[in-house]
Design brief:
The chain is built from 13 helices and no strands. With about 240 residues, it is an all-alpha fold. The chain is globular.
């Protein structure tokens, strides 16, 4: 078994090296093609070679100083590297520099995710909502981050609405199904249909998450009570 793992690791390394060499060759042949730099940077990021990917993107950014479309793509790539490395404020700084409308929605979604990763759910909600209310390929992912942020803030009913928007487009989304089940459970309703669907989608992940259900329920009840107190206090002002 150890031998099989070693063989698989060797094959993966060889495949990565071939892909890296191919992209480096492409860059050598067309040094003004920003997409090749982006592809190489993302390949290194997927391989968790974050320092090399960061250095590559920074060199490329210096190379494309006056080409705004290329710069936006490279800013986005570098932001993703830093996000993957857990350097969230640094990632935000690059995402916020993007001006191209098409890429800006994706950048806003990543900014939302960086805020969520830092447990700044209110800011994650702001940026997520900006994308969720637009049309396009990022909308479903944005609805998911909005739903997760609302859930973390204890706004269960609103969170359920956004999880439902995700499920209307992607009924096999594990996270949306599982979280909807939790919301029903916390609200003392039957969430079994959501849990059953989540279990069918990913049985192993369901078992892992299920072990945390009691803790999650306790946390959400506390956050819901806090949100209700805040709403009551705001209404009395």
């Amino acid at each position: 078994m150890a031998s099989d793992q070693a063989d698989n690791k060797k094959k993966s390394t060889e495949k990565l090296n071939r892909s890296v060499e191919r992209l480096i060759s492409s860059i050598d042949q067309q040094p003004k093609n920003a997409e090749s730099y982006y592809a190489l940077g993302m390949l290194l990021t997927d391989a968790k070679q974050y320092q090399q990917a960061e250095e590559l993107f920074k060199r490329a950014i210096n190379f494309f100083t006056k080409e705004h479309l290329s710069l936006d793509l490279l800013f986005y790539g570098l932001g993703n590297v830093l996000y993957a490395a857990g350097m969230y404020p640094e990632a935000q700084a690059y995402f916020k520099q993007i001006k191209q409308p098409k890429l800006k929605a994706a950048a806003y979604l990543m900014i939302a995710q960086t805020y969520y990763a830092q447990e700044n759910y209110q800011q994650a909600l702001v940026f997520g909502l900006t994308v969720a209310e637009q049309t396009g390929k990022n909308q479903t992912d944005a609805c998911l981050i909005v739903a997760e942020s609302l859930l973390a803030l204890g706004e269960l009913t609103q969170a359920a609405n956004y999880f439902d928007r995700v499920l209307a487009v992607s009924s096999t989304n594990f996270q949306a199904n599982f979280q909807r089940g939790i919301i029903e459970m916390v609200l003392h309703r039957d969430g079994e249909r959501f849990f059953s669907q989540a279990k069918r989608i990913n049985p192993q992940k369901f078992v892992q998450q299920q072990q945390r259900l009691t803790d999650i329920e306790r946390l959400l009840l506390a956050k819901q009570a806090k949100a209700e107190r805040k709403e009551s206090d705001d209404g009395n002002k």
